[in-house]
Amino acid sequence: MEIKSYKTKGEIMIERAESNFGTFEYDYIDNKNSNVDLTLLDNVQFIYELSLAELELKALGIDFEVTNGLREFKILNKSDKQIEKIRKKGSYYKTVAGQFTDYFQIIQKNQTRSVNQYLTHWFYPYKGKFHPQMIRALINIIGLKEGDTVLDPFSGSGTTALESQLLGVNFIGVDISPLCVIQGRVKTESIYVFDEIKMIKNEITANVAPNLFQTNENYYNFLDKLTSNERVKNFYILARLLAISDNSRRNRDFSNSFLKNIELMLASVKDYMLIKEKLNLRLGEIKIEIGDARSLTLQDNSVDGIITSPPYSIALDYVQNDIHSLKDLGYDILKIRDEFIGVRGNGINRVYLYNDDMKKSYKEMFRVLKPDKYAAIIIGNATYQGQEIKTVEFTIEFMESIGFKLVKNINKIIFGLYNVMKKENILIFKKGKL
Ligand SMILES: C[S@@+](CC[C@H](N)C(=O)[O-])C[C@H]1O[C@@H](n2cnc3c(N)ncnc32)[C@H](O)[C@@H]1O
């Protein structure tokens, strides 16, 4: 099956710049005005994004002045080193001193055309995904550097995993859901087994027939016979789960979806390999395991930062949402529900259980984080049975009571579908010395 290859506006710009100058020297001048050192990416539109863009510059040690209606910056302490830092690490900028940033080039590699779903981010339609650009910024803002280790104890679809990997920051991810662990691993590990994945593709696609793919046992046994490589298996398991989700949520034909997904997934993995090569990225090491945020198996004072978003929406039932995939993986749904924070219990009891579970999780975060380091928590108030549950206030109060200090509280107000306002908070805490 052929995949249509079409270019984004940015890719066309990059190509034009490259061909104009012969070699890829990043010497394309985006703005002739010498006062302009930094231009924002076109997609930066919300106030909280500007706050993050400014915080990021400060964290990278850049002194700046904002110009042109908040869309451009002038660097006051300009040096090659500062420019290089923004070019390699920055999250909100298209160009720095006339050169395209790494991030601008990374986001051009997008097979789905959905904003923010570049590289392998799109691999499963997981509800409640982070905004990857925000995570890249937070990694910088909380001062994480190549070789440091960041933890996400509710790693979900693996957004923090992929963004840390891109910045050369090591990542430890934990999630109670086996579906999440597969997502995170496939997004970050497939680049290491691309040839092996391709090697068994024909055998898999030639067997797309209802009799083989109807039952999971047939499929999983079939995969076991084809390969013993867990990373390769996970790739094809996720392709199947994606087709199951397309079929159950969008009523799409399973076989068509499965075939199309495999091609798109492969193209995305290839994109990742190409951009890694082109930008000479040194990737972070990624470790994602099934686990419980309430009792982590990590040592005390062992991680350099935490970036996470707990299941704050008591109303969003993660288990129910992915029930088809979890069943296909062979899990006992009732048993899984019992461990999931936010879906246990009913009525007011659900809120009590949630608070209790979150207290345990926050204590664990405190225990494993090194002193003087930061935990960024993205959380919002949930509405449950018609009542607002003040999760944000609860989080701040509890975190401060166990030794964290709130150092930043950014309101993240966005307008979603049908202009419905969604509010979340980005809370940054510092762990005080013991
Ligand atoms: C808001 S989502 C995280 C989404 C993630 N930030 C992303 O970008 O995809 C919360 C996650 O917490 C997980 N979770 C629920 N209970 C848990 C527990 N006891 N331990 C670890 N993870 C849990 C859920 O499976 C879900 O993936």
Strand order of the largest sheet: 8-7-6-9-10-14-13
Label the CATH architecture of the largest domain.
3-Layer(aba) Sandwich
Strand content: 15-25%
Mean pLDDT figure: 88
Tally of distinct domains: 2
CATH third-level topology of the largest domain: Rossmann fold
Count helical runs: 18
Note the gap between the termini: 59 Å
Segments where pLDDT lies below 50 for 5+ residues? 21-33
Number of strands: 14
Radius of gyration: 22 Å
Bound molecules: S-adenosylmethionine
The shape is globular
Describe the protein's topology.
Layout: H1 9-21, E1 38-40, H2 47-59, E2 64-67, E3 72-75, H3 80-89, E4 93-96, E5 99-100, H4 102-107, H5 132-141, E6 149-152, H6 159-167, E7 170-175, H7 178-189, H8 194-199, H9 201-206, H10 210-213, H11 216-226, H12 230-250, H13 254-279, E8 286-290, E9 303-308, H14 318-321, H15 323-328, H16 333-339, H17 347-368, E10 369-379, E11 382-384, E12 387-389, H18 391-401, E13 404-415, E14 421-431
Parallel strand pairs: 6-7, 6-9, 7-8, 9-10
Antiparallel strand pairs: 1-3, 1-4, 2-3, 4-5, 10-14, 11-12, 13-14
Bound molecules: S-adenosylmethionine (SAM).
Which properties best describe this structure?
18 helices; 45% helix; Rossmann fold; single chain; binds S-adenosylmethionine; five-stranded antiparallel sheet; 2 domains; seven-stranded mixed sheet; 18% strand; 434 residues; alpha/beta
